[in-house]
Amino acid sequence: MKHLILGNGPAGVIAAETIRKHAPKDEITLVGDEPEPPYSRMAIPYLLSGSIAEEGTHLRKGKDHFKGQNIALRTGRAKSVDAKKHSVLFEDGTAMNFDRLLIATGSSPASPPIEGMDLPGVHPCWTLADARKIMALAKPGAKVLQMGAGFIGCIIMEALASRGVALTVVEMGDRMVPRMMGEGAGGMIKRWVEKKGVKVHTSSRVEAIQKKGKALSVKLSNGQTVDADLVISATGVKPNVGFLQSSGIQCAHGVLTDETLQTNVAGVYAAGDCAEALDLASGKHIVSAIQPNAADEAVCAGMNMAGKKMVMRGVTQINVLDTLGLVSASFGAWQGVKGGGHAELSDEGNCRYLRLEFDGDVLIGANSVGLTEHVGVLRGLIQSRVRLGAWKDRLMQNPLALMEAYLACAQAQSAWGLTK
Fold it and tell me: What is the pLDDT of residues 338-352, one digit of tens each?
């Protein structure tokens, strides 16, 4: 059996190793489109902060790890897939056949249509090559403007702040982390960041970037102009699925998969940031671009590619973020649902915030800031969709009574299920 894996990030590597474990004689080829060993993009901020060297970003530290696993590494970028012929054409004109194909091509930065995005000193922060360019410019005291304050943007922001730069962040949304946090939580994070010395412009966007001597001049939609030595674009990502356009493999935002991570084409699977899998909270297919979900999807896809039946029960929308020392989290349907209730607690002085979202007497989503002790309980209640009964009213009065509610409801319903 010939397995071809497009993408050598965490999903691709884990899938390859899973296949090897359960199909020791099968042929496996792992293809990446960068001239680097397989590495984790999520480790790049730690490289920027100086916490690790480049080798620390590598997914497997042993020099001969993949050779020892009999996994062939190849560099190339897929141009198209012929699902009927079980063949992939690469941009260099070469082609490879497969019996099983995994699409784990991840995502790429979305570059906004702004004048000056192609100027020297304007960079995304996505690859090791990007990181090297940023480190050369982000010296202590350098003026840095970052476009975007989403989940990835905040991680990059923390790494830049640790380098001692003068940092300005511009976010189109009315708060920080707008796709993860509601107004209360996102506003609290903004105020925390500003107290740490970062200038933040929300409800604003970059309109143009121009050369100003050896530096750059950045025009904002709020009428202000900011000088910068370095501009970083962190305005979101999009799944790498364009090469599948005429393949017959169904895509929406990402590659659509079933509970085994197989696409509509037999023998073709998808995992990671380019895949749409079932979200437990909403019951819908989503791209959940976080590494734990990518790893779970990769194991499931790899098992099925190796002929071992496995079902993915669903991904969960969970994001945990450390922003300059303030830990925040979002779970499930944190935006709430029509007709649903919510409970809210805000302690500005101690930078603590909690908002719970309900559908009937079921907790379906939450935002929390500065309350790390509740992360596990929130996840358990939301994932299990346990019925709270009278405990919903208690949580409406005291949102911090989560542990008591979990113990009372989850354990009681578990016992009921066993004795029914």
Answer: 999 999 999 999 999
